[in-house]
Amino acid sequence: MPSIASTLFGLVALSLSSSAAVLPRQTGGGTRTLFTAADFDFINNQPIAASGGAFYIGVPTNAPCTLPAPQCEQYSNQTAILIDSLSSSAGMYSSVPSRVYVAENGVFSFTEPGQVNTIPDGAYTSPFDGEGGVLHFGGGNFGGWIACPLFTPGQLPYQVLGRVSSMGAVCADAIDIAITTQEADSIGAYEYI
Do residues 137 and 103 make contact, with C-beta atoms less than 8 angstroms apart? Predict the structure, then answer.
């Protein structure tokens, strides 16, 4: 199994070679589902899910639909974010919008449905981009993505955090991860809570 460093090096190399006119350069925007890339099999290539205002690995997406049943059939229960390559911001891909950010304590988070301008003080909202199939973030002297166990180290579930200068101490059993992206194959959820 390749290490996270070799996986990222390969993705960067692919991205650089793609920009050399052989393949079209990706803009980094669009609707994306998120997955982990890590050196540990139990957490590698796992979907990242939105639940309770944060992002997790090994927790189901919390995306209820409050419309009448026939209208809800068009929505999925898959976590998808919309990366705006012009503003370098990200939001939840849903009918009731939410905004994505990294909290002052490092928690990879999103606002309550419909509250796109209710960002906590000290949170970092940009720049996000998904260029090269990897979710990049640049706020708060960003030092990479990590995952912290919610219960037992080495067993899911884990919470996703960004290493930012304001976060303070990191959990003792943190795992360095990359967040890879794939084009979303559905119209997203009605809302994420």
Answer: no
